[in-house]
Amino acid sequence: MSVEPFNRLVKLAARAFYDDITTKGENQPKTGRSDNRGIAVVVLDALTRRQWVREEDLAKDLKLHSKQLRRTLRFFEEEKLVTRDHRRETAKGAKIYSAAIAATADGQQNGREGEEKIKLHTHSYCCLDYAQIYDVVRYRLHRMKKKLKDELENKNTVQEYICPNCGKRYTALDALRLVSPEDEYFHCESCNGELVAESDKLAAQEMGDGDDNARRRRREKLKDMLQKMEEQLKPLMDQLSRVKDLPSPEFGNLHAWELRANAAVRAANGDSSANDSSKSSQGLGFGGTPMPFVGETKVEVAFSGIEEKGEDIKSENANSPMKVLPPWMIKQGMNLTKEQRGEVKQESKMEGTSAADEYVKAYYAALLQRQREQEEAAKREQELLNTNISNGLNGTFERQVGLKSKRDENDEDENVEWEEAPPAGNTGENYKVDLNVQADASGDDDEDDIDWEEG
Amino acid sequence: MFFHIVLERNMQLHPRHFGRDLREKLVSKLMKDVEGTCSGRHGFVVAITGIENVGKGLIRDGTGFVTFPVKYQCVVFRPFKGEILEAVVTMVNKMGFFAEAGPVQIFVSNHLIPDDMEFQSGDMPNYTTSDGSVKIQKESEVRLKIIGTRVDATEIFCIGTIKDDFLGVISDPGAAS
């Protein structure tokens, strides 16, 4: 996709059609000083060397007053040569653009970001619309040629009639209503004046003498004009035909262009600085301006949120197609900028998982310990049973909250000792103890469990 | 250009026609109503060629009239820009001449008449070539090209040209030479 032939086309068209365009208000006096013909050509030429450009920057570069530039650009917008975009943005939003312009300029960030103010400003951007320019120029040429040819051959033109009295105009299609029964002329519907055929403007200039003579002269003049046009616009037409089969350079709209340019520089640099700048800009720039890509703002919300899994998957996907340019990929490029945060989240998540791991470890440790203690308890119990039953009973009753049967005593011993166990493994939080107990219940006999719930 | 198309129309029939030949009455009334009319969309209805079907009649409250939706095939004629037509001249004046191709009125203004034809006034106004071999006057037949149409809801008016190859008078024996 080469811009060069198109730029040449723009330059030729500028010189052919916009050479003597003055963009000044009608009320201004016409002095030599304010004669700004040629500005249009200068602006168009400058635009061929840029892609999207902020109008203030362009004005600064061209040393033009921004008002004057804006008037010229508005004219070109009407002429469909230029697309413009206006948006209210903060300094951050402007940074996206700055980053993008830096990307197209030399692939490096420059220090322009600092000079923007914090307030919201309406910035206007403009860009040449090459595809449309091609069409516009072609259409313009076609119309010129057709007009001349039609007048030359007097063909296929609907004759117009005009009433000299009231100035009302009719076309030949109204003829049926205009014929009068009295004479062979057409008559005005409103004032009944005799209509005269309105001959073309070119002929009108020299309609003084006889019809035939004038007609012949007009023909010659038209032929001459057509010929002149053909030869003077030949370079332009050649360029048009050269450009015909080339794909026209597309910059997309401003937003897409910025994204693409930023993505390109990120792909080129691959470092985190580009990431950072675009990341920081995402937060503010898009909030203030209505953007066609709604999806991305949605993604941002997830960014500080709790749902880690979805984002992790996305950022993993985004890792590989980092350098792809088309706009539909850029969405993923957006995710990509969040990569770091995604990683951070992963870490925090890792902590969560490791906590769980710790918990499991502690649980098994506790289980093991408990089994050992159980064995010990069993031994001790036997000893107790052997030595003194009543003593053991009393001791357990005092310690226990609920009523216990004798049968419980061995469980009781277990539990008392069990409660000492958790601190060794875990941080000693309540719910963890509970979990342990439940797990124990499943691991050990059922009576154990029931007793705990009663207590 | 002619088209053979199917159109639909709601026909109101007076109760006195209800009887054996209701259908014939309906068709004859349809022909009377429709043939020769002009709609901006379809052009002039030239002739009804057949009835597709007659729907169920609906009795109108209060009047006793019955409305039948009738689908019918018909030939329509609609002039288009760029079309070549043969037409009969109906009126000649200084501004040009009017011609008719069937129901369509066409106006040919004088600057769309070849430059070598001059207007001759008189009781039989006409356009004649300088050598007098070709003459356009009332009743002569011309071949012309339509360069503009004006289509209203109920009327079509065209403007034409004879300033092109193979256009001009066709009936006049002098034109053959």
UniProtKB/TrEMBL annotation, chain A:
Q: Which residues form a coiled coil?
A: 219-246
- Recorded protein name is HTH TFE/IIEalpha-type domain-containing protein
Q: Name one GO cellular component term.
A: transcription factor TFIIE complex
In this chain, the stretch annotated as Disordered covers: 268-290, 395-455
Where composition is biased (Low complexity), the residues are: 268-281
Keyword RNA-binding listed: no
Keyword Transcription attached: yes
Q: Which GO terms describe its biological process?
A: transcription initiation at RNA polymerase II promoter
Q: Which Pfam families match?
A: TFIIE_alpha (PF02002)
What keywords tag this UniProt record?
Coiled coil, Transcription, Transcription regulation
Q: Which family does it belong to?
A: Belongs to the TFIIE alpha subunit family.
Comp. bias (Acidic residues): 410-420, 442-455
Which species expresses this protein natively?
Camellia sinensis (Tea plant)
* HTH TFE/IIEalpha-type domain residues: 6-138
InterPro entries in alphabetical order: TFE, TFIIE/TFIIEa_HTH, TFIIE_asu, TFIIEa/SarR/Rpc3_HTH_dom, WH_DNA-bd_sf, Znf_RING/FYVE/PHD
UniProtKB/TrEMBL annotation, chain B:
Highest taxon, organism lineage: Eukaryota
GO CC terms, sorted: P-body; RNA polymerase II, core complex
Q: Which UniProt keywords apply?
A: DNA-directed RNA polymerase, Nucleus, Transcription
> Which Gene3D superfamilies has this protein been placed in?
Nucleic acid-binding proteins, RNA polymerase Rpb7-like, N-terminal domain
RNA polymerase Rpb7-like N-terminal domain segment(s): 8-64
- GO BP: positive regulation of nuclear-transcribed mRNA poly(A) tail shortening; positive regulation of translational initiation; transcription initiation at RNA polymerase II promoter
Give its localization.
Nucleus
Record carries keyword Transcription: yes
Residue stretches making up the S1 motif domain: 79-156
Where does it mainly reside?
A: nucleus
Mitochondrion found in the keyword field: no
MF terms (GO), sorted A to Z: single-stranded DNA binding; single-stranded RNA binding; translation initiation factor binding
Record family assignment: Belongs to the eukaryotic RPB7/RPC8 RNA polymerase subunit family.
Query: Which purpose does this protein serve, as stated in its record?
Result: DNA-dependent RNA polymerase which catalyzes the transcription of DNA into RNA using the four ribonucleoside triphosphates as substrates.
Which PANTHER family is this protein grouped with? DNA-DIRECTED RNA POLYMERASE II SUBUNIT RPB7 (PTHR12709:SF4), DNA-DIRECTED RNA POLYMERASE II, III (PTHR12709)
Q: What is this protein called?
A: DNA-directed RNA polymerase subunit
Lineage, broadest ranks: Eukaryota, Viridiplantae, Streptophyta, Embryophyta, Tracheophyta
